[in-house]
Amino acid sequence: MIASRGEPAAKPDPSSVLTKAVARAAERLDISRALLAKILGVSPPTVTRLYGGEYKLDERRKEYKLEELVAGINSANTHAESDFGKPIGKEIW
User: Fold this and answer.
1) CA 26 to the chain's CA centroid
2) What is the pLDDT of residues 23-77, one digit of tens each?
């Protein structure tokens, strides 16, 4: 975040960052909302609220354990590599 007038930048809410990261990762991996609900251990309506900004993940709750999320990735819920075009920022991959 950019600070204005010499004020320190506010730290982003960790739950908001986590929620957005999980939603974006699911979209990039082409994971359906129904499958994401199963992976996270929440109901499909909760995932709908997550995408709508009405529900936030919390790293202290059971539905979020990175190890479990990664372990849930398999050939049934992944897709071929995607080409997103030329870098537009400072990407280095």
Assistant:
1) 6
2) 999 999 899 999 999 888 889 999 999 999 999 988 777 655 677 777 878 888 7
The backbone region for 58, taken as left when phi is positive above 0, alpha when psi lies in -120 to 50, beta otherwise, is: beta
Cα distances (Å, whole numbers) of residue 57 to 5, 12, 48, 70: 32, 14, 13, 16
2 Cβ contact list (under 8 Å, min separation 6): 9
The DSSP code for 57 is: -
pTM above 0.70, yes or no: no
Report the alpha-carbon distance of residue 77 to residue 90 in Å, rounded.
Answer: 29
Largest CA distance in the chain: 51
